[in-house]
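Weekly structure sync, notes
Attendees: PL, DS, HV (note-taker this week)

Item 1: ribose-phosphate diphosphokinase
DS walked through the input record. Source organism listed as Alkalitalea saponilacus. Sequence as pasted into the shared doc:
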Amino acid sequence: MPPKAPIKIFSGTQTRYLAEKISLCAGRELGNIKLVNFSDGEFATAYEETVRGSHVFLIQSTFPPSDNFFELLMMIDAAKRASAYKIVAVIPYFGFARQDRKDQPRVSIGAKLVADMLSTAGVDRIITMDLHADQIQGFFDIPVDHLYASSIFVPHIRQLNLENLVIASPDVGGTKRANTYAKFLETPMVICHKYRSKANVIDEMRIIGDVKDKNVIILDDMIDTAGTITKAAGMMMEEGARSVRAYATHAVLSGPAYDRIENSALTEVYVTDSIPLKKSSAKIKTLSVAQLFSETIDRVYNYQSISTQFVI
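Item 1 (cont.): predicted structure, written out as tokens:
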């Protein structure tokens, strides 16, 4: 039997803050990689150590700007041309995931395009977390390990020891996620029904369910402009809720998000470090996914099951 391929972990520029935590949890050092920037805006990626015959894990979230995604593509291409044995892209936040279908005429399906570009670049496997749409896994013809932040959120919610707990979905699309949490935690569920005339603008919202005298937890895969969760929190408090908290995997937090959260009825907002926070906030708390990804990388490398990591 041939010797096992050595493991090497590298990080993209903007996700190094998380990659360092992951490598520390794994008890491994990050590999050396160099990014050279040119005056016209182009950049080049180069490994400063051999990856020949290695099982290479590349950690990079693809949040805006698109340079982060293109840097990942170049890291994959460089590893392939340097004769890496296997190339695994570890993408805690998978950008463009909201473009998973044609919801109107003459639009692109961005998530499928991203999947095609990653495959063409030469990646052998994807590890990601809480995709905006589960069906994106089907856009790939390679294995996709889809992790869930519930492994971190559920134990944390239990530690809060909240009485009269209610799980809420911020929209109809998140009903399945909220229902799974509600069943596992044995709590009721409410739904926020919203109507949008255009992206990031809510025209109308209604709360379906009883929140009076309840401690409400809103669950979502991401917070972008925070319009939905802050409006929902305000309406729930008006309908008699004791408190409203939010748990969201990806802290996109664009535009007026920080100001909206600070001035909202939300008691606390918990997010993961799949995306770095742009600034600090008294209400926003971060729960790290480093241990989860570290264990997954180790299990993938050793050809072990990762399903035992799933809480729900």
